[in-house]
Amino acid sequence: ALRGRVGEVLLAVVVDVRRTEVEVQVEEPPVRADVPLRERPAPALGAHVAVRVVNVDVVAGTVALVLGDAG
Questions:
Q1: Which residues, in sequence order, are CB contacts of 37 under 8 Å at separation 6+?
Q2: Under 8 Å CB-to-CB from 58, ≥6 apart: which residues?
Q3: Nearest one of 41, 58, 57 to 49, comparing CA atoms
Q4: Which pLDDT belongs to residue 2?
Q5: Is the pTM of this model over 0.90?
Q6: Which is nearest to 49 in space by CA: 6, 19, 10?
Q7: Category of 58 on φ-ψ map: left (φ > 0), alpha (ψ -120 to 50) or beta
Q8: Mean pLDDT by 10 residues, the chain (71 residues)
Q9: How far is CA 40 from CA 17, 19, 61, in A?
């Protein structure tokens, strides 16, 4: 669902907060993924965040996202 969207910023909701990463649910397309915090403070559970698509591997079925801003 994210192939061809590398570099785009998508809106997501934080559904789990861990020590080094957060799990987000992207609003559109509906995708759930872990996002590393990389020295950033963890957003609150339920927070709306922007995530940038940095890599999609269709064969492995993985997507890499980073926290980013919509601006």
A1: 20, 21, 22, 67
A2: 3
A3: 41
A4: 86
A5: no
A6: 10
A7: alpha
A8: 90 96 94 93 96 94 85 44
A9: 13, 11, 26
Question: At 66, which amino acid appears?
Answer: V
Judge if the upstream peptide bond of residue 36 is cis by omega within 30 degrees of 0. no
**Residues counted in the chain:** 71
What value, to the nearest 5°, has the Cα angle with vertex 4 and ends 49 and 46?
15
Residue 20 to residue 40: CA distance in whole angstroms: 9
Read off the tokens for 11.
């809106």
54 dihedral zone (left: phi>0; alpha: psi -120 to 50; beta): alpha
pLDDT at 1: 75
